[in-house]
Every structure is written in structure tokens, then in C-alpha cells.
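quick one, 226 residues, struct below
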Amino acid sequence: MLQNNFGKKPVMFRDYENIARLFYSGATFVAFDTETTGLEPSSDHLTEIGAVKFNYEGELGSFDQLIKPPVPIPSFLENLTHITNEMVANCPDASTALGSFLSFLGGKETILIAHNAPFDLGFLNAQMQRMGWPIIPNTSIDSLPLARWVHPEFRSESEKGQYKLQSLAKRFNVEVRSAHRADDDARVLKEIFLKMIEDSLPKQKDFDINSIEKNGQKASDQLELF
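---
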């Protein structure tokens, strides 16, 4: 069974009362998603990494890479993700793809965002360990518990799966173009994260949005862009 190198665990940001301050500090974020051959990082493998890099001023870049796994993609996942064994036959292996993804991140200061982050981070770090590398050092935000904190009222609704990525996208009027593809899920996640920053402002600790300026304009003037 794979164990975290050097005894380290992923660093998670959970100080949600200060997340707006972090966002407007100028930090760089990467919303990302993975597709895989199954549910177990120790025995299953990556088939796609998709990501969007951004800060409070806007989008900075995107990343999408299909990956050839060392095992066949099960047919039910081909049907779910529309990633077929034929599509990945000539794609880079996970080590090459992950190296490119790390370059895209641009350093450990970049903050990662994933929906149900332990799943995606688990697959990335399992591959890092197969390569003999330490786990990804970047601080990460799990948008699933963040959504529960920003909108606890969703729990009382009769519809199940209120906090799933696609359910949140529908609620926040975020267009879903290709569900269960990593590149589109990452784009959707970025838009949901921006909406949750906006919705969380009344719950932020000692934070005044009107005191933050962007290129001569107060950040509150920019919220309508999100």
C-alpha cells in the first residue's frame, strides 16, 4: 500500500472565514480535476488531468492532458467520461503528464482547488510516489466542505446530492459543456469557487470588500464579473 513520502500529508486550507482575504490578496489558484480508471489511488490510474489557473483579476491559463494508463479503461468509465482506450493509446504516460502539470502550477505558492479534494489529490500523490517524488506541497482547498459552509441551507432540501459539482453548477447557472471530463469540470469548478467567494462575504471575519482596490477600482465593483 502506498504511503505518503517523508510522512507528510496534503496541506489543506480550512480557514473559510478568511478565504476572501486570501482570494483578494493576489494569490494564484488552480482549479483542477482528474479522471481515472477506478476509485482506488493505490491500484487505479489517471486518464486525464484538467485545470484552470486564475486569480482575482481573471484567468491566467488552462491545462488539459489525456493520459495513457498502464491498464485498460473499464467500459463503464469509457461510457461515463467518453475517454476511450483508443483516445489515450498514443498519449503520454502519467509521469510525463504529471511533470507537465507541476510545471503548469508554477510553484508551491499556487493554491489548488478540487471538489472532493482527497480523491483527486490521492491520485496525484499516488503517482508522485510511484515516481519516487514527495507529495505535492501546494496548499489545497476542498470546495465540497467549502460549499457546505457557505450554503448550509442546501442540506435541508429534499433533492439528494445537493453539493455535487453538477448540482452546484445547475444552482449557480454555470454552463456544463462536458460533464465528467477533467478540463470542463475544472472550468465549472473555477466558476463555482468564484460564486462561493461572493456568497461567503457576509460570513468573512473582519473583512471589508470595499477596502480592496483593483487597478483603481474597488473589488466590490468587480463582483458582477464573477
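Confidence is low (pLDDT under 50) at residues 1-7, 222-226.
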